[in-house]
Amino acid sequence: MPPVAGFGTVQYKRALPFKGPSGAVIFAVVGAIMGVGWYRTIGGRREKHELAREERWSRVYQLPFLVAENDRDAYRRQAAAKAREAIIMKDVPGWEVRSPWESRPLEDARLLRTPPPPIHWLSKAPND
């Protein structure tokens, strides 16, 4: 027989302990971490591009100095080559030490001739 006061209430709700944050909180935290990461990534890319631009402009501004240094080096090498040539060719009668860019005598002008233009087989129309 049932008890006079009736049966006790049946506990049908789950009484589980709290195991951590909810899914929305985890989603928000992960989104915030990703947002900070993207912010720093984009900032790093901008910094890298700015440094590359600055390096390009510094090279543009240094170019006249580099060209002048190269010209001085070429002049020094040419002067050394002329000095070596003068020492080597001192016993040759009539030999002049000169720059390779100076004009040559007429007997060397044959080296400066350009060859005739090539004759291409399509240059002439066939005779019909």
What does this structure look like?
It is a single chain. The chain is mainly α and 128 residues long. The chain has a domain at 23-90. Helices cover 52% and strands 0% of the residues. It has 1 helix and no strands. The mean pLDDT is 83.
**Helix-residue proportion:** 40-55%
Count of helical segments?
1
Mean pLDDT level: 83
Please describe the biggest sheet, giving its number of strands, its sense, and whether it closes into a barrel.
Answer: none
Task: Output the structural class.
Answer: mainly alpha
Low-pLDDT runs of 5+ residues are none
Oligomer state of the chains in this structure? single chain
Instruction: Provide the succession of SSEs.
Output: H
Rg result: 45 Å
Query: How much β-strand is present in the residues?
Result: under 5%
Summarize this, please?
The protein is built from 1 helix and no strands.
List keywords for this structure.
128 residues
What topology does this entry show?
Elements: H1 23-88
